[in-house]
Write a structure and sequence with these properties.
about 950 residues; mainly beta; eight-stranded parallel barrel; about 10% helix; globular
């Protein structure tokens, strides 16, 4: 591998098709229909729980089983053969019980099917643990990935009526017990439609919900629920929605676009089964045209089953990203069908230029051959058309074709962290001078380069990656994150000086990448699984034949200028093995075929230099900073970076450890055995130019994976910010060394009543050269600031004021003050925005402070605050960042945690004045007003 991995590219946010649906009148000039995309988040009905299974039909009995002697599924021709005799050869009678007893591997099951007559025949399984490959009469009829969930296969074409028929099942067990653990039956001559998917069922008693929604986040905590998922019980949920499509839409292609459903979604439209989507993290976009009733009402039903986990953190449940209803003509730009690659010239000059290679896939879904014209027009960040090119393409029926064209940009406006210049590509498809599709793609022009000796370069200039890893949930709303919260989270990280974001450990919402494009945040975009599996980790038999989830991530996200690398996986047991390298190589090949412009990598916590290391473009290093030098010495031509670093644990506003309460001191002294403190983490990266940077675990606290304690903790302590985005003290350590302005920060607070005269450890963070500390006007001395470190004093407590002054070259550059406050006396409300959109979805985040009579936040206050909203809005969530608080995030009150809490207010679809009131016992209440406004074009 060369010492430099360099790619030049132009990227775009997820493209959207827009259009106007109009009626056509004779001899009238009308705008042609060129596609429409309608947000479909309102008016859904939701039911928590499943419906009883009323499946009928004869049960399959007489099962026998044996362990697979080869430990590999390579003997189906023998064990699935219809004429195989099983009275010897190690076959044993089978009951619905565990046959593995902890063994990882495979087992074969066989049974004769009950008598079958002519007609449709479905073979239904109620429970197989873990995965199943099913054969009937020696023919493979399907595979099912996942345990404890019912599944079925249509075997009509594989059976002989009035003859002997045999089913064979290869069961894979990845951990614990396994086998065919529930009844298997035949269903004849009917299509099974669950009650919740039928048009005759009344959902009048279901709740009306607005998407995005996480239906798990509001459930009561239970000590018996899964620890790593935050002690939230999980269950099946159902959604239904009615909608109308006019008869004039007949002849168009109708698509439902679900941004994300966690997880294992099954979709019915008008009582007909459309399909299943297992992934909880990739979009689901079926063509539903065959199921639509034009000129009448239609019913969507979605069953969501989050009871099987894909990860080991809080994953929630529900339709938690946006839904879109899309209408297209038969001749159109294919979904995710545009990709713009740029070659930039004179990149570091004042007037760089660029050559754009525009790849556009045009689709023809009609039954006739079409000659189409594609017009590609480039619009500058200032709204001017700066380039245009046309091309003709002949498309046979039901086909698609990729068109490649090139244009030149003079004085290209580059995308960078400081200048987020975004271009727009307008792709117009027409035939016989009639426009059929107009497709918009936003993109930015820039270059990236990873050098094994000197790190990462953006537009030819060195940039140290100052990154954080993050899961996707947020306080109050779980994984059902409103768009503004993505903006808020990126904004808070930017304010700290962060410039990079790792999507841990799954593809993010498109809206998050949009914010990274707009605010200037570099992204490590991460796939959920190594290979084709939905288990949290991949095993030696993991398949690599499909990789559809990976393909969707790359196709969807490859046009975002913020994305600088593709991560295939995280800390896989196979990472140092030849099997892991084989799977990774196949994934890299797929990724590079779709996007040859970015490096392919993964996060490895061991085995550096082995297995996957030998087939990836960049070496991602999780922890182990003591091994940076060794790896670089042994592999001097391999670029490397810290894919996951830090994992300091701390609780905002707490300065002593308490396992009973579930709190960890906010001093930078606590880290698990495999992790490091913030100072150790960043000094190791910052002092080594060959380490391109690092992604700290984590930017924000997240639900689940409580560390170092379990119950009563229900979320992590890893965040530099808490669940609400309130800063912990380590935030200021990173801000001092990552930011661009001098600062000094004092910790802890100075409210220690009852500890007068006792020594309190006082720390200061700063990147200035010297810091002087004062208590009540008296100097406690000047200390030199160690590079990437801190200074500290042991100060006998006396009430009053601490002041820190930071100097460089004898010049005072920054000060900080911490005072002993009075008792909690009042509430202060701080809305983050002046106006919000009246679209049923936009939210206002309101910071709630408990203050003393002088208006200072009381750092130990835990008063309960009650909230009410008037006007066209409602409470959408409450939170406080307390990792051990079991209050509901969906309530109307919340305790302050160390002086702070947060309210999330969601707008309705009506504009007007919104008022939030807050009150608490013994506290002066607070009122704040803001407005919601209708969207203007």
């Amino acid at each position: 591998m060369n010492s430099t991995f360099s790619r030049v590219l132009c990227l775009c946010t997820a493209a959207a098709t827009l259009g106007v649906l109009t009626g056509v009148q004779a001899n009238a000039t009308v705008k042609p229909f060129t596609g429409s995309r309608q947000r479909f988040d309102s008016g859904w009905r939701f039911h928590r729980g499943d419906f009883a299974d009323s499946a009928g039909g004869p049960e399959v009995t007489g099962w026998v089983w044996k362990p697979d002697s080869n430990s590999l599924p390579n003997d189906a021709s023998v064990n699935a053969a219809p004429n195989l005799e099983t009275h010897d050869g190690g076959w044993l009678p089978a009951t619905y019980d565990d046959v593995f007893h902890g063994r990882v591997g495979y087992a074969w099951y066989r049974a004769a099917l009950p008598p079958i007559h002519r007609g449709r025949t479905v073979l239904r399984f109620t429970n197989v643990d873990d995965n199943a490959t099913v054969y009937v009469n020696g023919h493979k009829v399907g595979e099912h990935d996942g345990w404890d969930t019912p599944f079925q296969f249509d075997i009509t074409a594989d059976v002989e009526p009035n003859s002997r028929n045999v089913v064979a099942v290869l069961v894979q067990n990845t951990a614990g017990g396994g086998g065919i653990n529930g009844p298997v039956s035949l269903v004849f001559n009917r299509v099974r439609v669950p009650v919740g998917a039928t048009s005759s069922y009344s959902d009048a008693k279901w709740n009306t919900v607005q998407l995005p929604q996480d239906f798990v986040v509001g459930t009561p905590f239970s000590k018996s629920a899964d620890t790593s998922h935050g002690f939230h019980p999980v269950m099946v949920g159902w959604y239904r929605k009615q909608f109308y499509l006019p008869a004039s839409a007949r002849g168009r292609q109708i698509w439902l676009n679900f941004g994300g459903i966690y997880r294992d979604a099954r979709l019915w439209i008008n009582g007909k089964f459309v399909g299943r989507h297992q992934s909880g993290y990739t979009p689901y976009r079926p063509n539903v045209t065959p199921y639509i009733h034009f000129g009448s009402d239609n019913l969507i039903a979605v069953r969501v089953d989050p009871t099987r986990f894909e990860g080991w953190w809080y994953e929630g449940g529900g339709i938690y990203r946006h839904v879109w209803l899309e209408e297209h003509n038969a001749l159109r730009v294919k979904h995710w069908g545009t990709f713009v690659i740029s070659s930039v010239h004179n990149v570091t000059s004042a007037d760089p230029s660029a050559d754009l290679t525009i790849q556009t896939t045009v689709a023809n879904s009609s039954s006739r051959t079409v000659v189409a014209h594609l017009e590609s027009r480039v619009v500058s960040p200032t709204g001017l058309s700066v380039a245009s090119i046309g091309a003709n393409v002949r498309l046979p029926r039901y086909s698609s074709h990729r068109v490649t064209t090139t244009v030149h940009l003079e004085k290209a406006a580059l995308w960078s962290l400081q200048h987020r210049n975004l271009y727009r590509l307008v792709s117009t498809v027409s035939s016989n001078n009639h426009e059929t599709d107009v497709h918009y793609t936003t993109f930015g022009v820039r270059t990236i380069q990873f050098n094994a000796a000197t790190g990462f370069y953006l537009n030819g200039r060195p940039v140290k990656l100052k990154g954080t890893c993050n899961h996707q949930d947020f306080a109050g709303v779980g994984i059902g994150v409103p768009d503004y919260v993505f903006k808020y989270r990126i904004m808070r990280l930017k304010q700290m000086g962060s410039n990079a974001y790792r999507c841990s450990h799954n593809p993010p919402a498109t809206e998050l990448l949009d914010q990274c494009d707009r605010q200037g945040m570099l992204v490590m975009d991460e796939n959920r699984h190594l290979g084709d599996t939905y288990s949290p980790k991949s095993g030696p038999s993991t398949k690599v034949g499909n990789l559809s989830d990976l393909k969707e991530m790359v196709l969807r996200d490859r046009n975002h200028p913020s994305v600088i690398m593709w991560s295939m996986c995280n800390e896989e047991p196979l990472q140092s093995t030849a099997t892991g390298a084989h799977i990774f190589a196949a994934m890299r090949q797929v990724t590079r075929a779709l996007d040859p412009t970015r490096p392919v990598t993964c996060a490895m916590n061991g085995g550096w230099g082995y297995g996957i290391s030998n087939v990836e473009d960049l070496q991602g290093c999780n922890y182990n900073p003591g091994s940076y030098d060794r790896f670089h010495a042994e592999f001097p031509n391999k670029p490397m970076y810290g894919s996951e670093v830090g994992s300091t644990v701390s609780t905002r506003g707490i300065y002593t450890n308490s396992k009973k309460l579930g709190y960890v001191s906010a001093y930078d002294v606590n880290a698990p055995s495999w992790a490091q403190t913030a100072e150790v983490t960043w000094s190791a990266i910052a002092s080594r130019p060959f380490v391109a940077g690092g992604f700290v675990w984590t930017g924000f606290d997240y639900r689940g994976e409580p560390t170092p304690y379990g119950w009563p903790c229900i979320n992590s302590h890893f965040g530099i910010l808490d669940m609400c985005g309130f800063a912990k003290d380590n935030y200021y350590y990173y801000k001092a060394w990552w930011g661009h302005k001098p600062l000094v920060h004092i910790l802890p607070h100075w409210n220690w009543a009852g500890e007068e005269g006792q020594p309190i450890s006082v720390w200061c963070y700063s990147a200035c050269h010297k810091v002087e500390l004062f208590l009540n006007g008296k100097s406690l001395g000047v200390q030199d600031m160690p590079r990437y470190g801190h200074v500290q004093w042991e100060v006998p407590y006396e009430p009053g004021t601490l002041v820190a002054k930071a100097y460089t070259g004898g010049k005072l550059l920054a000060t900080d003050t911490v005072s002993t406050t009075g008792q909690a006396a009042a509430i202060r409300l701080i809305p983050l925005r002046k106006t919000i959109l009246a679209d049923n979805e936009d939210v206002q985040l309101v910071k709630v402070e408990v203050v003393d009579a002088q208006g200072r936040v009381v750092p130990t206050a835990d008063n309960t605050v009650h909230f009410s909203v008037s006007g066209p809005a409602e409470l959408d969530g409450v939170a406080n960042g307390d990792p051990s608080d079991h209050e509901s995030d969906r309530g109307h009150s919340r305790k302050a945690f160390n002086g702070l809490c947060m309210v999330i207010v969601r707008a309705s679809n009506k504009a007007g004045s919104i008022t939030l009131q807050a009150s608490g016992s013994g506290l002066t209440p607070a009122v704040v007003s803001f407005r919601s406004t209708l969207r203007t074009r």
